[in-house]
Fold this protein.
Amino acid sequence: MREEIIYLLKLKDSPDRKALFDLANAVRRDNMGETIFIKGIIEFSNYCKRDCTYCGIRASCKVKRYRMEPDEIVEAAIDAAKHGIDTVILQSGEDPFYTTDIMIDIIKRIKIGAKKPISLSIGERTPEEFKLFKEAGASKCLLKQETVNPRIFKAVHGSDYEIRISLLKTLVSLGYIAGGGDIIGLPDQTPGDIADDIIFMRDNGIKMVGIGPFIPTKNTPLENHPVGSADMTLNAYACTRLAIPNVLMPTTTALGTIDEGLQYKGFEAGCNVIMVNFTPDKYRQVYRIYDNKRKVEFYETVHELLKRGKKLSFSVMKALKEEEMV
Ligand code: SAM
């Protein structure tokens, strides 16, 4: 299996690659239908206690920092819900300012006010906290392993590899729709490492996968490291769809940052999700996890998807009709 995935990951534009994408697409259609799900992301804090070498909001980066007030976060979530989005994603650096109680309060208020599935992407917390967040109303949680190669993980992420992996497994056992994923193009990473990521996620009950190319970012230790391969990212989407047929898999903003068209190409390789940004403008400029991060706007995205003949969820279509946008 590993050798076959490595072969597929390395494919360049060719009839074999077209066959891989066609198969991934058919598997996506058979298992998840035609709908492209739109998730609304709110980047509520760029404070981070971690020092991941790839990331523009790492603790030692001298960037302007912000924290949204709980009221502002809830308001942004309710605004996103009014647009009919399929899930509200709360994302931040790893910021202990938002204590367990503050997070529980935010989740509960969004659950009541927005009436949408809530997904967390807030880095590592204790298993007890994740249990409480689930009880408060969060149903999905993204904690990308970034790489299952422990040596590379340690070099780029700095935190404890065993803890990260065991937390991801905890999320599955707590009943979350748990999200993993990796960065394509980390230093010393091989196609074998990426194949291992896919096999790991398949074997551990991961049902959401975020895979993006590495984007070099100024004033980080990896600022001169080359951008990750878009071709390999797309191939990884297709392989992941074959390995986990019912996966929720976004075509990522990082891929769209290399080239906007590439993000839409993700849908040809088995993706069925796109994330649009509902972070208030004044904060969004400062949430620079990597340079030139693409602004993925709701209306622009919907327009592009409909232009390409994609099917959107009932709730997005209903909201658009109410606004007389379709
Ligand atoms: N702090 C949380 C965590 O680490 O899980 C969530 C926020 S973190 C900024 C979101 C994701 O951004 C990470 O999982 C990582 O894969 C991605 N990311 C950060 N810097 C990146 C870069 N330079 N290129 C590509 N992806 C990057």
